[in-house]
Every structure is written in C-alpha cells, then in structure tokens.
Amino acid sequence: KLERPLPGFLGKREVERLLDAPDDSTPLGARDLTILEVLYSCGVRLAELQGLDLENVDLRRRELLVRGKGSKERLVIFGQPAHAALAHYLHEVRPLLTTGTGTALFLNRYGQRLSRRGIEKLVRRYAAQAGTRDGVHPHTLRHTFATHMLEGGADLRVIQELLGHSSPTTTQVYTHVTNQ
Questions:
Q1: Contacts (Cβ under 8 Å, ≥6 apart) of 84
Q2: Structure letter (DSSP) for residue 89
Q3: Phi first, then psi: what are they for 93, rounded to 5°?
Q4: Which residues carry out catalysis?
Q5: Quick check: helix, strand or coil at residue 49?
Q6: Residues 72, 77, 82: CA angle, nearest 5 degrees
Q7: Could you write out the three-class secondary structure of 138-162?
Q8: What is the DSSP code string of 12-79?
Q9: Which helix (H) or strand (E) holds 47?
Q10: DSSP letter assigned to residue 69
Q11: Most CB within 10 Å of its CB: which of 48, 103, 158, 162?
C-alpha cells in the first residue's frame, strides 16, 4: 500500500504574514481578508466557503452553517478575528459589492457569487505576496487550522467534528504532522 503524503501546512508566522497581506482599506481587500480569516479560523473546504449564503452566518453566536461533502450540514465556530472581519464585511463592504440580488456571502467585483477559481487565485496571490512557501491553496489553510488546533491541545475528536470528517482515521493524519 502506498503511503499518503502528509498534508502541507503553514507556520504561525506565515499565517500572520498571509493575514496581513490584503489591503483591508479597499472593499476587495477587506473581502479577501475575511475569506482568509474564515478559511484559516474555521477549517472549511473551498466548496463550503464558496457555497456560503448570508443566512448561513450567525454573528451573534459566532457560527457558520456549512454544507460539506455529501450535502452534510455542520456548524463551525469562529473566533474574534474572524468575527471582526465578517462583521466589517457584512455591514460595510458587501453592500458596496452587491447588485441587490442574490444571497451569496462572498461576492466578486461584479456583485456575483465569487467562484472557486477566484478564491483559489486570491489565496495563491496573497501567499506569494506574504512570502510563504510555494503551493499554498485554500486546502492548505484547512490543514493549517487542524494542525494548529492539535498543537494547541485540542482533542482529536473535536477537530474531527469541526472538519466534518466522518471517520477519526481521516483526522489522525494530523497527529503525524504535529509529531514531526
């Protein structure tokens, strides 16, 4: 049986540089910072992030309702930095981008739902701008979320729930990453 390669992840300093890369004084920069914050602090998949609608965000409870693989729904929680970014985006930035129709959370410059490819491009662009290693993509931030949670002492079962893994063996790969 071939061994699966260990997932790549960013160090804490690399994440800080990545989150500092967008110019959040512009509408698109603030949107991009919010996307990076949600990817990193929630560990959501690219498709889950791209499919988020306004009704899936509960700022008061700091929860997102995401639809994962197999149309399974789960609640993911987020901390203060993601809360601040989401609140700013929802109240001040998104109204500047919207054309008034549609319920998509993240919008492109034309007021339409931001595509998966658009999200991939912005993650790669900011990773390059921040000077992180090559090959950073949205799933790298998911791996980074799980690895940092485990390094911070979170229980493997909790991480499994937050990532939406149906099997604990899928989540166990992160124990090998942190051991190394």
A1: none
A2: I
A3: -100, -50
A4: 45, 69, 139, 142, 165, 174
A5: helix
A6: 125
A7: HHHHHHHHHHHHHHCCCCHHHHHHH
A8: HHHHHHHHHSS-TTSHHHHHHHHHHHHHHHH---HHHHHT-BGGGEETTTTEEEEE-GGG-EEEEE--
A9: helix 46-50
A10: G
A11: 48
> Of the candidates 64, 124, 117, 67, which has an alpha carbon nearest to the alpha carbon of residue 89?
64
Q: What's the predicted TM-score (pTM) here? A: 0.89
Question: For residue 172, which phi and psi values (nearest 5 degrees)?
Answer: -65, -20
Structure tokens belonging to residue 50: 């791209």
Tokens of 172: 């166990």
62 residue type, one letter: R
Q: Which residue is listed with tokens 């791209």?
A: 50
Rounded Cα distance between 18 and 40, Å, is 10
For residue 115 the two structure tokens come to 């595509």
Residue labelled with tokens 């290693």: 133
- Torsion angle of C-alpha atoms 135, 37, 15, 113, degrees rounded to 10: 20
Helical (H) or strand (E) element with 63: strand 63-67
